[in-house]
Predict the structure.
Amino acid sequence: MAAPAPLIDTDEDPSFADLLAQRPHLAVHAHDGLTMEDVPLARIAREVGTPAWVYSAGTLRRRFRALRAALEEARLPCDIHFAVKANPNLAVLRTLAAEGAGADIVSEGELRLALAAGIDPAHVVFSGVGKTMDELRFAIGRGVGQINAESAEEVAMISAAATALGRTVDVALRVNPDVDARTHAKITTGRSENKFGVAIADASALYARMSATPGLRPVGVAVHIGSQITAGMAAYATAYRHLADLVRELRAAGLPVERVDCGGGLGIPYRHEPAPSPAALAGAIRTTLGNLGVRLMMEPGRWICGPAGVLLASVVIEKRTATRRFVILDAAMNDLVRPAMYEAWHGIVPVAPAAFAAATSPCDVVGPVCETGDTFARNRGLPDLEPGSLVAFLDAGAYGAAMSSTYNARPLAAEVLVDGARFAVVRARQTQEALLAGQRLPDWMG
Ligand code: LLP
């Protein structure tokens, strides 16, 4: 007798209905098709064109508040610094700033964006392994609240930059706890072979030296072990336990520690991964760092903005070969690189109402870029799609537009913010002229 079929076949893609059920800002209406909040996505496509990134302001607020509520419920006073790299759109940043978010930044450009969004420089943390002297000077000059130092070499640079400006800057030491966050190798950051942070074993000596270094004030320790963490709280808890031990060791040596930055990394369910909740993360923080009497900070990106965005694209053509059905879109790997770069799975749903009910058949969803890697999905079930039909890539609000490029001389797509029944273009589609604007021929070419 054949073995009984498993109740949940984890290899089967979730249905369109299942995908939407998990994403309350998206719904299908009999007449309007797929809507975000109260705006039909087809209307945005008509007025703005495709490809276009579309973000739900309501979802950004709802998720930011849910995270804050989970921390409050665990009685953890914690400053939330949104990781700007996940979505540097100014309107997105302004939406989160209005909720009380600070910013985690990694470049002068991100600092400028955070300030332009109205975030108080005192609520900005400057992270990253390769901050340049110019960037350090700029950030210290603007009064950033904290710099996370990642090496002894960088501590010297921060000191030089601050003393040249006659300033003293608050510095936290980012440690590398050598734990495996069990995520994609390209976004794991807390192993000893990764470039990030200072080995725990070296941290206390460096921290002691920092307190005798001019221009900086050591205020605490920081950790970030990776991104899209869905494998439970074990890696977080281990990293935080190492951090708590370090804090106790530093204090025993008479060194003050006021702040602990818990990093980001909380994953989201793109397909049907287990979804770690903010409450679980708050619990892990509470049991490991909760009694240290420090000011807690965190740097989430994806968890807040990932589910809030879609990438809207049109079908250029369907191409059938002897063995495959290709759905060729006007969006490509230059827009959404995550599938090509991390083998990431994104839900792809049709926008037209009739398409939801129609029978599906397997297809490869691809872009027009001249690389086989320009493949968004293989063997994905989609209905027949006429040229011009719209599809939406789900969970494209984090590391979507942020990572796009102009490869194949394709202009950067427009970005749109939806808020209730309103929507606005919050970044214009790059023009063909702008794409060429910086290029010059040397004089010797006449
Ligand atoms: N803090 C630091 C120091 C980071 O390096 C990062 C992300 C974050 C916070 C925010 O992590 P999140 O909460 O968003 O996971 N492009 C990749 C993700 C790269 C993450 C880089 N660092 C992707 O598309 O999956």
Summary: The CA atoms of residues 166 and 271 lie 51 Å apart. DSSP finds 14 helices and 21 strands in the chain. The pocket of LLP is lined by residues 83, 85-86, 104, 127, 187, 224, 227-228, 263-266, 299-303, 338, 342, 398-399, 403 (CB under 6 Å).
